[in-house]
């Protein structure tokens, strides 16, 4: 019974966190393997730039990906 209750509480807490935040500019610092979504002119309409942080000495990975509108929210990056 305790397991069922803890699973329900954990899933209720995880649902609001499922939305991805889309930034207007690429962050200066990004932890290794951390992902940030950026809305800029580098990608075609309907897609966002997915930036993945890397370990020291390697460049970041960048790719244009499509995100459903209901999973994303548009915010401003803070330096």
Tell me which oligomeric state these chains represent.
single chain
Record field, number of beta strands: 5
The radius of gyration over CA amounts to 16 Å
Kindly give the count of domains: 1
Strand arrangement across the biggest beta sheet: 4-3-2-1-5
Helix content: 10-25%
Q: Give the number of helices.
A: 1
The helix/strand order is HEEEEE
Please tell me the overall pLDDT. 76
Structural class: alpha/beta
Strand content: 25-35%
> What summary fits the major beta sheet?
5 strands, mixed
Shape: flat
Low-confidence stretches: 13-18
Distance between the termini: 45 Å
Would you mind describing this structure in some detail?
This protein has one helix at residues 2-14; strands at 20-23, 35-38, 47-52, 61-66, 72-74. The protein has one domain (19-74). It contains 1 helix and 5 strands. With 79 residues, the protein is of the alpha/beta class.
Q: Could you write a compact summary of the structure shown?
A:
The chain is α/β, with parallel strands linked by helices. It has one helix at residues 2-14; strands at 20-23, 35-38, 47-52, 61-66, 72-74. Strands 4-3-2-1-5 form a five-stranded mixed β-sheet, with no helix packed on it.
């Amino acid at each position: 019974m305790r397991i069922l209750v803890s699973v329900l509480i954990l899933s209720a807490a995880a649902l609001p966190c499922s939305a991805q935040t889309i930034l207007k500019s690429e962050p200066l610092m990004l932890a290794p393997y951390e992902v940030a979504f950026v809305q800029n002119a580098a990608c075609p309409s309907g897609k966002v730039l997915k930036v993945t942080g890397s370990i020291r000495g390697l460049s970041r990975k960048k790719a244009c990906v499509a995100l459903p509108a209901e999973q994303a929210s548009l915010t401003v990056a803070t330096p």
